[in-house]
Write a structure and sequence with these properties.
Blueprint: E1 2-3, E2 8-14, E3 18-26, E4 31-40, E5 46-47, E6 50-51, H1 54-67, E7 74-79, E8 85-92, H2 96-110, E9 118-130, E10 133-144, H3 145-157, E11 161-167, H4 168-178, E12 181-182, E13 186-187, E14 192-198, E15 203-209, E16 212-219, H5 223-231, H6 238-246, H7 259-289, E17 297-302, H8 310-318, E18 321-324, E19 331-332, H9 337-345, E20 348-349
Parallel strand pairs: 2-7, 4-19, 7-11, 14-17, 17-18
Antiparallel strand pairs: 1-20, 2-3, 3-4, 5-6, 8-10, 9-10, 12-13, 14-15, 15-16
Length: 355
């Protein structure tokens, strides 16, 4: 594994309603986060990996970096989008140069898209044997060129030097690979972990085994869908609804709640039903890939993960130990890793990612 040099760098995790920015330094033993903050942004600036207003987003980011005294000039940006296509593929045992040549001329054989509109990357998943023949197992990523170009332009616009643009699923895989434990006592090595990041636009599901990303999918339901559903039932703005949700306990008896809280819990249950079904499909896909596959932990991240009682609801539905992410053993920071994990992961570099 190769991480940044012993200098401070910036990592930016962009979402539809807020941006997480961290400034940190990698040492031989750990990563030290020296500055971290969240920038709230209007809902019409960014959606599903697409920058909708370059000028306004650039202005807000540049101003926030100055206000928060961020001094580094080298930045990584972590992105995710339902428009990023992932496929697990097998190829003959060839060199990395030959893999690049195969993808250059045969990418459309693996993913039915116009290859000239995408940048292809791949992650080594290991080796498999098919009828006694050794093959390479790869996770192929097809990223729209428009997403890459717009984010690199954004970094240039705010006066920073773009170090790399990282795919969120791959970034989370690196983070678990880099660490030995999460939440102080939970071991990572040898465990299959389903990382569930419940964000504003959607829910990201990444399955990681021994620090290697195995499956990455997006469930197109997130916090915004919950807000809209609640607003159909109660006359409240988004901030007021967020305050109500903070006091909700999903394990509390509905009979003892007032009508407004009952409406909110009903909406949460409806949205969770959709999210659970989407996650269940991803887990079942992973389990059917190999008869020995079995998820050890579901790790909860993102905005929806803060709802009281959510861990128990996950445990009951999936019959898998579900834990809200708080910390990693090799990340030195006072911040909640459930919120900043994607940005922290952007500081880690792996040699497996090929361009």
């Amino acid at each position: 594994m190769r991480i940044f040099d012993n200098k401070k760098h910036i990592s930016i995790d962009i979402g539809a309603s807020e941006i997480k920015i961290i400034e940190g330094k990698a040492t031989k033993k750990n990563i030290v986060i020296q500055n971290a903050y969240t920038l709230k942004i209007p809902k019409n600036l960014y959606s599903d990996g697409m920058i909708l207003s370059m000028d306004q987003l650039s202005y807000l980011l540049k101003t926030s970096l100055k206000d928060n005294k961020i001094m580094s000039n080298m930045a990584t940006v972590v992105v995710n989008s339902s428009n990023i296509i992932t496929r697990e593929i097998s190829l003959p045992k060839v060199s990395d140069g030959e893999i690049e040549s195969i993808l250059k001329y045969q990418a459309e054989d693996f993913i039915p898209i116009e290859p000239q509109d995408y940048i292809f990357q791949y992650i080594h998943l290991g080796r498999v044997f098919d009828d006694g023949v050794e093959k390479l197992n790869l996770l192929l990523l097809a990223i729209p060129k428009t997403i890459i170009e717009s984010h690199l332009n954004l970094i240039n616009n705010i006066g920073l030097k773009p170090k790399v643009m990282d795919f969120q699923g791959h970034a989370i895989g690196k983070l678990f690979n880099y660490n030995d434990m999460f939440n102080e006592t939970n071991l990572i090595k040898g465990k299959a972990i389903a990382s569930v990041d419940m964000g504003y636009d959607n829910t990201k599901v990444n399955i990681i085994l021994n620090g290697v990303l195995k499956v990455s999918r997006v469930v197109n339901t997130g916090f915004s869908h919950l807000i809209k559903d609640i607003q159909k039932k109660v006359d409240r703005n988004e901030e007021e609804i967020l305050d109500i949700i903070k006091d909700i306990d999903l394990l509390e008896e509905v009979n003892f709640l007032d009508s407004e809280n009952t409406f909110v819990i009903d909406s949460i249950n409806e949205v969770l039903s959709i999210v659970f079904d989407g996650i269940d499909m991803v887990i079942k896909y992973y389990n059917t890939r190999d008869r020995d596959n079995e998820i050890d932990y579901i790790i909860l991240q993102g905005g929806l993960s803060n709802i009281h009682g959510l861990e128990t609801r996950f445990k009951r539905f999936f019959n898998i130990n579900a834990i809200k992410l708080h910390s990693f053993d090799r990340i030195k920071s006072d911040e909640d890793m459930g919120a900043y994990s994607n940005a922290v992961a952007g500081l880690i570099r792996l040699d497996e990612v090929q361009r």
